[in-house]
Design brief:
The protein has 509 residues and is α+β, with helices and mostly antiparallel strands. It folds into two domains: 135 residues; 287 residues, Spore Coat Polysaccharide Biosynthesis Protein SpsA, Chain A (Alpha-Beta Complex), CATH 3.90.550. It contains twelve helices and 26 strands. Strands 1, 2, 3, 4, 5, 6, 7, 8, 9 and 10 form a ten-stranded mixed beta sheet that branches. Helix 6 crosses helix 12. Bound molecules: 2-acetamido-2-deoxy-beta-D-glucopyranose (4 copies). The site of one 2-acetamido-2-deoxy-beta-D-glucopyranose (NAG) has 3 residues, from loops.
Length: 509
């Protein structure tokens, strides 16, 4: 067949036009070519795959893979993984998982801090840190010799897995400061080799200033970290929550997505939202069953979020979508004023005023839907949109309708929420500061109830108990902002409903 084509093309053009190849031959010709192409593709794919599976320090592979590995959990090591590397695995065993890595560089320590989930039980292998420098064009180059890592556990060790830091202490001879290139890292229990498919980019943190006061002047003033989000699609509630906190001065929000619904995802991707607020949604696909770790790996998530904002934001608030940090408006109408006000509060003797505070702690009170009848009737989403001219009303807002709260306020450390000063904190914890920078002996300052606390809007408080026996108070302090929140939410709603095809209908019961 090939000869036939070759001969054909050697003929002068006029003759070629006359000499038509029979249709049957053309069919065979095409089939043969397709088969040849298919075989070539398969062979190439096999070669590529084989290359990727090789565990040698193949730097080209590292370079190709590194971009696809950003921003979600990856398993760096599974017990008995040698068998995977031999090609005889996979083997079920305890896993070591990493999410992100931050270069924590200061006078006391130079370390790459890896956000990880590690087993709380059993013998832990010794890991080695393999460091690389380089960029996308030149590929990555090993940066010094591999060196041993340290695993540092956080709390909640009653679960099979726990949030932890894996630390790669940088040897003094590796001067990192004179280069701006990104660094990449591979963890491996073997000094001589690492898995080129499991590479983490190392994020550089702006160097902290040595400051006795909490006077930082970073790019952002207030940011929020939201715990991992699971099965959430309440788009209207989310809009209100975002707009309330934006009114308070929050400009950045970071969320961790396990399974957000389609409508919430549409809102979070919309230009209407991005115009006013910087929202980062990171994937949080845990590679283990959720019951093996405390609240979907919340310890690791709060560690990641804090380090993400270190050197970037002055204050980071840790909240969930049904929680609002509401200041007492006679003391502060936004978070900048709230922080200033809290700095003037007399502190207990344990706090040393000449040292910076690491965290402001806010107590929580429950606002239950079943405590009392709501003000008005909130509506829920109707899909698709029915009446496109319909506007939002005050009684679509939870901060307007929900005014009854349990008079009991949780004591500090129980269900409390906080605002961290990222540069003073190492581990923010879940309800109370876990670990601060050694310098910040000031630690935690609890906000007096009178100045501000967290409104936690729950649906059901009473459960089997009789609601009438629960001591409650009417608290409509959030109404101070409700007109502004409505205006902003309405504006966002108008644009998002077009983009995401949303509508409203009355909430049943
Ligand atoms: C940084 O500078 C030091 C001293 O000037 C040099 O020895 C070292 O190789 C430099 N490191 C890099 C990564 O360029
Ligand atoms: C969140 O994750 C879910 C499930 O993987 C996905 O369908 C959704 O699009 C994601 N949303 C965002 C905003 O990333
Ligand atoms: C407060 O901190 C400063 C600076 O470290 C120290 O000199 C002082 O003794 C501390 N005061 C108390 C009461 O601990
Ligand atoms: C707000 O502050 C004022 C003045 O200090 C006080 O009278 C009021 O009770 C406070 N409100 C709340 C809800 O604590």
């Amino acid at each position: 067949m090939r000869n036939l084509i070759a001969t054909f093309y050697r003929l002068p053009l006029t003759q070629r036009l006359n000499k038509v190849i029979p249709a049957k031959n053309i069919y065979h010709l095409r089939l043969r070519n397709i088969i040849i192409i298919l075989i070539t593709v398969i062979i190439l794919a096999c070669i590529t795959l084989n290359n990727k599976l090789r565990s040698e320090n193949d730097l080209k592979v590292v370079n190709e893979e590194k971009n696809s590995r950003q921003g979600d959990w990856q398993i760096v090591w599974e017990e008995n993984q040698e068998q995977i590397w031999d090609g005889s695995g996979p083997v079920k065993g305890l896993k070591f998982m990493v999410y992100s890595a931050y270069l924590d560089e200061n006078n006391e320590r130079n370390v790459i801090r890896i956000i990880a989930l590690t087993p709380t039980k059993g013998m832990l292998p010794n890991f080695f840190c393999h460091l690389f420098t380089g960029d996308d064009k030149t590929g990555v180059i090993p940066f010094g010799e591999p060196f041993p890592a340290i695993i540092e556990h956080s709390g909640y060790s009653q679960y099979l897995y726990g949030g932890s830091f894996i630390l790669c202490p940088i040897m003094p001879h590796l001067t990192l400061r004179n280069t701006t290139k990104p660094y990449f890292l591979a963890l491996s229990p073997i000094r001589e080799k690492f898995d080129g498919r499991r590479i983490l980019p190392v994020q550089k943190i702006q160097r902290r200033r040595t400051s006795r006061e909490n006077v930082f002047n970073f790019q952002y003033h207030f940011a929020i970290c939201v715990q991992p989000t699971y099965r959430y699609d309440s788009v209207l509630e989310l809009m209100e929550w975002l707009e309330f906190h934006r009114m308070m001065g929050v400009t950045h929000v970071t969320m961790y997505n396990i399974s957000m619904g389609a409508h919430v995802s549409c809102l979070l991707r919309s230009n209407a939202l991005k115009k006013n607020l910087d929202v980062l949604v990171l994937p949080w696909g845990l590679p283990i069953p959720s019951k093996q770790v405390h609240v979907n790996g919340q310890v690791a998530q709060s560690n990641d979020c804090l380090w993400r904002y270190r050197g970037v934001a002055n204050y980071v608030l840790f909240l969930d979508f049904d929680e609002y940090l509401v200041p007492n408006y006679t003391h502060a109408v936004n978070y900048a004023q709230l922080v200033e006000r809290l700095k003037t509060v007399p502190v207990d003797e344990k706090l040393n005023r000449s040292l910076p505070v690491a965290q402001f702690l806010f107590r929580s009170a429950f606002f239950g839907k079943d405590l009392a009848r709501e003000f008005g009737t909130r509506r829920k989403l109707a899909l698709p949109s029915t009446d496109s001219s319909e506007k939002l009303r005050l009684d679509d807002l939870i901060t307007f309708t929900r005014t009854e709260r349990q008079s009991f306020m949780y004591p500090a450390k129980v269900r409390s929420k906080f605002m961290s000063i990222p540069n003073q904190v190492i581990e923010p914890g879940v309800h109370y500061l876990e670990r601060s920078e050694p310098r910040s002996l000031g630690e935690v300052q609890v906000s007096p109830e009178e100045i501000g606390f967290v409104h936690h809007y729950r649906d059901y408080l009473c459960g089997v108990r009789e609601c009438s026996t629960l001591k409650k108070v009417t608290d409509n302090s959030a109404h101070f902002w409700v007109a502004g929140v409505l205006e902003r939410t309405e504006e966002l709603w108008k644009e998002v409903r077009k983009e995401c095809n949303l509508g409203l209908e009355m909430l049943q019961s």
